[in-house]
Amino acid sequence: MASKGYSSPQRQGRGTQRDNKDKKPRLTHFLCLPLINQTSIPQLVSSLAGFKASMPLIPPNVPAHVAAAAQLPDVPLVPDGAFRPLGTLHLTLGVMRLPTRERLDEALNFLQSLDLESMLREVEAEAGLILSNTERTTSTTTETTTRLPPASAGPLQPLSISLTSLSAIPSARAATVLHAEPVDPTSRLYPFSVKLREKFIEAGFMECEMIKDPKWRKGKAGAALDAEGDGYDNPTPTRQAADISVNVEQGEISDAETSKSSNISQPMIPRPLLLHATVVNTIYLGKRRQRGGKDKGKKETYKFDARQLLGRYKNYSASGGGGDGNEGPGNLEAHEGLLHTQEREKFPFIWARDIPLDRLCICEMGAKPVPYDETKGGPVLGEKYAAVGERILDFASGGREIDDEEEGGVKIT
After folding, report:
1. How sure is the predictor about 128, in pLDDT bands with cuts at 50, 70 and 90?
2. Contact partners, residue 297, CB within 8 Å, separation at least 6
């Protein structure tokens, strides 16, 4: 008679086969808009260098008496290894599991089949329709209709963004990620990106991540509590959305992280798209013992208090006498010196202006080192993600090849 709790080899085998069958392949690729080109490189080199140089200092993560006895100097709030290399900056549109060459080829063919120009014209037409409806509902005397040019009219304006501000994930008090926000003056980038993501999801190539519906509340008391907060740590739909997406380029996000809590009564919704450029991610530091943690022996992802940084970079102050939000990191100290003597006006910090979005790429997970080629005068990109397929977003000329020289001597794709 089998002893209690005994599991036969046959049963064990069936269970293992079932577990392997239920487990999804790992994430392998992602769809993105790279941010590195001839226009952005010199601006970002300057901004990121100033950002690192202005990092606040904190005591080393050792007992105070040890630091005093050894006369250990203070250390930067964000360790050097958490800063993302220049060549990796991009806007992620979604992640994919393409475990076989056949599956990858299908996704690449799908990318090439998309009529990107028509999609962007649809975005402009829909924006014109929204504007028309808004004007009809707000006008009490006349009915006006303002529409964008029809889809067949003239060349499309290129997509271009400025990279601004600074936000923390999952919270300002215990941040693991800092990211900048793309700002498109034409308001086309976000709806265009959503359309692209929807196309890849509908075709079965892209993951449709689910999160708890942040608008769902159990009664009025919960809704009232949700309206309160300090402006940084009150979770928002986009912050919850980004909690997963910021780390996907490593290809190590587990299925549990994208579907956890799905067995509770709170409804789940598709993750809203959060367009962001990650500048700091402490996951690359590995696990370490946390300062002041309850379990001193436990190692976890490094967290830090980012409130001081957000105060300076999210909406930093410029003097009322002429600040226009154009100042770089090197001028922040001078602005702060006027804090108590002049009336201040807040502006988002600008990392780089007028960055052309000239490519749509499918990239492999995991950034690779980029050698510095001094013979071509190329910048130190550090690392980049390998693009296995791309579309040139040159709507005016219908697409063109980009020379290596245009990227400062290093071909980004």
Report:
1. confident
2. 289
Cα dihedral 399/401/407/409 (nearest 10): 180
Q: Does 7 map to a domain?
A: no
Range of the domain at 387: 25-62+75-136+145-215+236-314+349-407
Stated pTM of the model: 0.72
Q: What is the count of structural domains for the chain? A: 1
For the segment 341-381, what is each residue's pLDDT rounded down to a tens digit?
A: 344 567 789 999 999 999 999 999 999 998 877 665 566 89
User: Is 86:380 a contact under the CB 8 Å cutoff?
Assistant: yes
Instruction: Report the alpha-carbon distance of residue 370 to residue 380 in Å, rounded.
Output: 8
For strand 57-58 and strand 287-289, is the pairing parallel, antiparallel, or unpaired?
A: unpaired
Using alpha carbons only, give the angle 168, 171, 173 rounded to the nearest 5 degrees: 105
* Element housing 298 (H / E): none
Strand partners, 281: 177
Q: Return the sign of the alpha-carbon dihedral for residues 126, 128, 129, 135.
A: positive
What is the Cα–Cα distance from 87 to 368, expressed in whole angstroms? 10
At residue 366, the 3 state secondary structure works out as coil
* Residues in contact with 91: Cβ distance below 8 Å, sequence separation at least 6, in sequence order: 32, 33, 35, 182, 193, 275, 276, 277, 357
- What is the residue-wise DSSP string for 107-133? HHHHHHH--HHHHHHHHHHHHHHHHHH
What local confidence, expressed as pLDDT, does residue 66 receive? Answer: 59
Q: What is the CATH number of the domain that holds 47?
A: 3.90.1140.10
Please, which pLDDT band fits residue 306 given cuts at 50, 70 and 90? Answer: very high
CA 107 to chain centre: 22
Q: Whose CA is closest to 413, among 388, 393, 396?
A: 388
Span 26-69, pLDDT tens digits: 999 999 999 999 999 999 999 999 999 999 988 777 666 555 66
358 CB-near residues (< 8 Å, 6+ apart): 37, 158, 392, 393, 394, 402
